[in-house]
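This part of the workshop introduces the protein records we will be handling. An example says more than a description, so a record of this kind follows:
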Amino acid sequence: QNAGGPPGSPTMPAPATPPRPRTSRKSSASRPAQTEPPLSRQRRPPAMPAEDWQRALRRQFGRAQDFQWANLGSDPVFSDFEVVNPATHGRYRVAIRGAEPGSSTCTCADHATNQLGTCKHIEFMLGQLLKRRGAKAALQRGWQPAHSELWLHQGPQRSVRFRPGQGCPADLLRLAAPLFLMNAGGVLPWDRVDDLPAFARQAQALCAEAGHPLVLHDDALALVAQVRDADHRRQVLAQAYPKGAASAKLQKLLRTRLYPYQAEGALRAARAGRLLIGDEMGLGKTVQAIAAAELLARHFGVGKVLVVCPTSLKHQWQREITRFTGRDGQQVQVLQGLRPARQVQWPAEAFCKIVNYETLVRDADLAEAWAPELLIIDEAQRVKNWATQAARCLKRLADPAVCPHVLVLTGTPLENRLEELISIVQLVDQHRLGPTWRLLLEHQQTDEAGRVVGYRGLDAIGAALAPLLLRRRKAEVLAQLPERVDKTLVLPLTDAQRAIHDDQAAAVSRIVQRWRKTGFLSDADQRRLQCALQTMRMVCNSTWLVDQATDHGLKADELMTVLDELFSQPDAKAVVFSQWLGTHQVLMRRLATRGWGHVFFHGGVPAAERGALVDRFHNDPGCRLFLSTDAGSTGLNLQHAAATVVNMDLPWNPAVLAQRIGRVHRMGQRHGVQVINLVAQGSIEESIQGLLVFKQSLADGVLDGG
């Protein structure tokens, strides 16, 4: 077992009243001169082991920083230090216990997950101390603590350990001997974890009587608590539902009947406490999360549930929770309005609060103060980029020290790159996949320029994810789902489209050649490249999207021909997707002459009005078309109204394409589904088709055993 569950960031015990900083300096005054060329972050020196390269990068970066620092203890070397990054205002506690990797600790996330035993803050602090007389000799002698301690060792296998200090009473050593493997660094075996609380009580009493200091570190105790809580959940649920998902009592949980796979998903989520539900779109991840929340509420006292979702889904979540559980509107609260109104809403008593990603970033302090006991993150691919404000906010909130239970919902946990999967998985367990640098080194194949050209060993990633990823495919559990037929219509570009497309393609070629030659692109070149690629894609639909004056292109007229045939059936409806508003403007001009009613769903539609658009499409027989940008590609249920999806353009991302189709091809669909993709011949769109296949192969390899 890999340490049972994800602990919070490691912390060192602070004095009851922290002393005033005795030393506070910046490193720029006496920065050592560079004697060797700097290491590249992208390319490892051939003769250097990967671990040494990563440690050296952190040393190189840390020693060059202008961090501020202060000694929080009394020893000039072996002490706790506060390190402050003035650029980000981040504050970290660094405990220096030696110069060897693994001997010192830091409260930053990188140290907790990189398995290197160091980080830039530790390296910065060591660099500062080594400038002082006597520090080097002290570090060589090593740390000899006066106190004994229970501490958390960070590494490939995290472990709780006991370390005796100077003058450790013999009775304490005898007490520790049956519990810890003293010949193996004082490791606590996980099968003895239930005996630790009794040891802690007896050890504290013994040390108090002997006058020997004993420190029990919070992060070590937190990890032990998580392992014991997980065992408790398994025992309680096994007793309450002895037949597992087949238990009749489980079907009485909600005011709707659960499919067997949904009952199993809810039970597994409650049993695990922290789980990534990655079922394919249309299999009912929402109802599984609601059922799991009810299990946690009934059996484990969870009384505060926070749902984080896209703006367009807030009221849908509220409706489904109230419908399935019978809880009234006061118990299921959508957070909305301006900040003063939300400041009143957050502390108000409620079982469940629902907030969108953007508002959560602004209300991070209020969310942490409310202290949710279960965090449900819907459409979690929104935080695939770990550097975004939303991702960082959610990872702080999902820390086990803040919120013990987390359910992450996404049908597309892997869309483009392995780094995205890591970011999403870290919401559940920041240690499961190991450090990012090692995962990429072991599984990515790159060419000489550093471009990713392939992957290897993806089944190993799938195996590592198995304990915390629940993924079922439609073909596995919904044999009755209607057939889906995909058709690609390839249309030529007009002369006007071709001129614009090829002119931009030439600009792209020049920039790419410059990059291949120098390995570097300026910010200006990056912007030009993005604009040129975007223009190439837009002009494939119509020149209107580029110049807002002309309308050369065959896609819109071809769509009208398709719809003429489709709408000969009086009850037929269709959903039409395009990334760009301009495409829908072109379409709506043509629709005006045909008399087909339509609704237009896009990111500019206020959240309060979105539900009415969906309702009209479902209930108005004259409303034949649902026009949508990718704002409508997630969370909406349109399967009861339409059975045809038209993609006017292809996204870069196969998950976005699957999300679009999943609005119609999902549970509850009674008709065969037709998917029509319009592709411009001899254009960038044909290249995108190949890229979509490559990216989908990555997801299949990791998630579905491909």
User: Anything to note?
Assistant: The two ends are 26 Å apart (CA to CA). Residues 1-34 have pLDDT under 50 and may be disordered. The chain is about 40% helix and 15% strand. The CA atoms of residues 385 and 420 lie 6 Å apart.
